[in-house]
Amino acid sequence: MRRLRTLCTAVLASLLMVTLAVPPAHAETGVRVTDETIPGHGGIDLPAKVITPTGHDGPRPLLVMPTAWATNNLLYVGAAKRLAYESGYQVVTYTSRGFWDSGGAIEVAGPEDVGDARAVIDWALENTDADPDRIGMAGISYGAGISLLTAAEDDRVRAVGAMSGWADLAESIYSHETISYQAVELLLNSAHLTGTPGEKLLEMEREYRRGNVQPALDLAPERSVSTKVDAINANGTAVMIGHAWNDGIFPPGQLTDFYGELTGPKRLMLSAGDHATPEAFGAVGLPNETWSELARWFDHHLKGADNGVDAEDPVRVKPNNGRGGWASFPDWESVSDGSLDYGLGEPVRSWDNWQSTGGLGEGPETGWSYGVGAGRGTVAESGTLLLSGALQQFADIPTGVSLPLVNRSYAGVWTGPRLPDGARVSGSPEVDLVVTPTAADQSLYFYLYAVDRYGSGSLITHEPYTLRGAEPGEPVEVGLRMEPVVWDVAPGQRLALVVDTEDSRYTDSGDRGERVEFGSTEEAPAALSVPTGPAPGGRA
């Protein structure tokens, strides 16, 4: 354990060295970094790095940056040095309680963590030349969540930059009552590896390992800024959100919902990547789009810079594939300006398709049912946490599938007509399907693919869904919204929907030997609606 912590520190330190040679514009301007121990909530010690600009007159705008889960205060020093040097910010970044050599125990962004952030603000106002009327907070992941929660409690925080954070903790790790297994295991194991879990976290883990997620769900509302949006709005906090389409810990849908409820100054940036990958290099001081926009955000809202931030469309999206450029919109709803609407037909075999496949037709088709075995996976998968999203971002390599190899004994498959001009999927696809399980608890996984003429599919988006307490043999009308995305479907490709019952990213409910029947009725016709947006280049 000690050796691994030492190794992790060495890696962070080596990344930090990349940022130390920022050439000065003139001799008087520079940056001073000092190590401090700041008393946190309840008197615990919070190891901090205080980054002070030299050559900039005070009082200075203050930025407080809580660290991400399982990291220490080296994380943001590169970005903090750049913010201090280029814009004159007084920056304090500290190791969140319970991690590494910080005091206390890991409280999962509880009231103690908010108390720590407020104590750091108090300390900075007393011990640096920080301006009490110009305070901002920023962070990645855990630090983003703490920043938003603190802004809801403390109206001194005028602006926030939340990168790869969450708004609804329960929806993130238990979407549609399905446990995000890879995410939960990563969070728990890294907490034990790099910190001291608090009693609440230990109790959540004990119950989770027994199959009981209720303790986690009980604690989630207090740790979810979605329950405190009225306070954020009342405080008038300027909120910028940066996030990745493929974030496997905090999927983007809960953040687009939160963004829509904000009434103050706000900005939303969504691009390719997985958890924290869009902004990771910027944290160590390297050029980065998210951090550059964050600096502009703070310059406008904390320094009053007339840099055009207030006049720009606040929603900015970049497609998840193809390395396309940014498109800007006045609000999230405008990301979609049309839709491809299909009715799901009965999966059948044909002369040109030896596996049972349903059509995605122009109108509803009702009165059919199709049964599959449950508890066994197919080649349709959502991918691997962090790895799949990073491959999509850096190499434009999607999570793929060979549609002919999807075993129709264990999955329903529907394909649509070729799209001769292609299409830009833009928003959250929606699926309606009648499901009849033979088990009370049954997991389902919905995948939307762009498929070429050879049957090779690229995963556009997906969504887990678990029936809980269903009456075996009784039909259930399932209606769900898949995770939002912007994806460019190439000319000649077609859309395909796959539904099966097992995915390695999640904890599955439903045993082998059980069955699931998919169907479409007059009262509840099976349907797929795929939102579309302006063609690439159609909006800047």
Topology:
Elements: H1 2-17, E1 30-39, E2 45-54, E3 60-66, H2 77-87, E4 90-94, H3 111-127, E5 130-140, H4 142-153, E6 157-163, H5 169-173, H6 181-194, H7 199-209, H8 214-219, H9 229-235, E7 238-244, H10 253-261, E8 266-271, H11 280-283, H12 289-303, E9 315-317, E10 327-329, E11 338-344, E12 348-350, E13 353-361, E14 368-373, H13 387-395, E15 400-402, E16 412-415, E17 423-427, E18 430-437, E19 442-451, E20 456-467, E21 476-481, E22 485-489, E23 494-500, E24 515-520, E25 527-532
Parallel strand pairs: 3-4, 3-5, 5-6, 6-7, 7-8, 8-9, 13-16
Antiparallel strand pairs: 1-2, 2-4, 9-10, 11-13, 11-25, 12-13, 14-24, 15-20, 16-23, 17-22, 18-21, 18-24, 18-25, 19-20, 19-23
Keywords: Hydrolase, Signal
Region (Disordered): 503-540
Family: Belongs to the AB hydrolase superfamily.
